[in-house]
Amino acid sequence: MAMKSHFTFTKEQRNGIFLLILLIVFFQCAYFFIDFASNDIKINKEELAKFQNEIDSLKQIEIDARKPKIFPFNPNYITDYKGACLGMSNEEIDRLLEFRKQGQWINSTKQFQQVTKVSDSLLNTISPYFKFPEWVNNSSLKSKTVFHLNSKLKTFTQKQDLNKATAFQLQRVNGIGKVLSERIINYRSKFAGGFIADVQLQDVYGLTPEVIQRLTNEFTVKTPRPIKKLNLNKATVEELVTIQYIDYEIAHNIIEQRVLREGYKSLTDLTKVKDFPVNKLEIIQLYLFLE
After folding, report:
1. Inter-CA distances, 13 with 16, 103, 110, Å
2. What is the reported pLDDT for 143?
3. Separation between Cα atoms, residue 72 and residue 125, nearest integer Å
4. What is the distance of C-alpha 66 from the center of its chain?
5. What is the DSSP letter of 137?
6. What confidence tens digit (pLDDT) does each residue in 95-140 have?
7. Are 192 and 250 in contact (CB under 8 A)?
8. Which of 277, 280, 222 is nearest to 250 (CA)?
9. First to last CA, the chain
10. What domains can you pick out in the chain, each with its CATH number?
11. Tens-digit pLDDT profile for residues 266-283
């Protein structure tokens, strides 16, 4: 018995297959050669422009939000890091730090530019954030300051011991009342033996440089509390963190910089250490020496 072929089609089936092939060819050609894009699409340019402006505004708001915010500050206390953030060059920052090391203070925007030599454009950008002590803009206080600065300076022998002065004695200095005198005594009492040096008066809240100058013309540390100074080129992290204002992070940075420099040549080299509290250098130096 002959096997019936599965590929044998009837006439109707062959016609159907042929028609299907024709349809496939037709649609393939239509897909490749006929442009179905509509030319009737209309764009509302005015609405599109509004939408684009809104997007641009949102982008600008985000950019402004990411910019570091600048808060009012006293330019006398600009550190390396702060100066770099403000756009100052290393030379400009160094001029300011050198000026401050001499015990001098910047009291105006004009003087800031004279000392640092920053450009007019940078000065115009950062000077609105300068915040000087109230006495700078107070003419009556200025005249008092000039008067006292011009008064006769006392010798070391003529001055009284700051570590033994009473609150009542301190109040005899112009600018020091009951509150400030008590703060000085309380700060002195925090340390067994009192002050190491006059410079620590900078840590007493509320004492301006002018008041400190008048105070140290009447009083000075004659009996400093004994301390063990550390050799900056040999001190360990554990030893460094015993110093005021130096935490473990700063101590590690000091030692890292010491290795890179193959030893410190001057205590002022500490101003180049990352995150070092430059405005407290004079106090920190009290606990250090170099060999």
Report:
1. 5, 108, 101
2. 45
3. 13
4. 16
5. G
6. 988 888 776 788 888 889 999 999 998 888 888 888 876 555 554 4
7. no
8. 277
9. 117
10. 75-132 (no CATH), 150-220 (1.10.150), 230-289 (1.10.150.320)
11. 888 898 898 888 888 888
User: Cα–Cα distance between 162 and 223 in angstroms, integer?
Assistant: 8
From CA 23, how far away is CA 49, in angstroms rounded?
46
- Return d(Cα 10, Cα 151) in angstroms, integer: 129
Nearest to 185 by CA among 164, 157, 155: 164
Contacts from 246-254 at CB under 8 Å and sequence distance 24+? 246/284, 249/275, 250/275, 250/276, 250/277
- Concatenate the DSSP letters of all residues of 173-210 into one string: STT--HHHHHHHHHHHHTSTT--SSGGGGGGSTT--HH
Q: Judging by beta carbons within 10 Å of its beta carbon (0-12, 13-18, 19+), is residue 17 exposed, middle or buried? A: exposed
| Alpha carbons 185 and 165: distance in angstroms, whole number | 8
Residues making up the chain, counted from first to last? 291
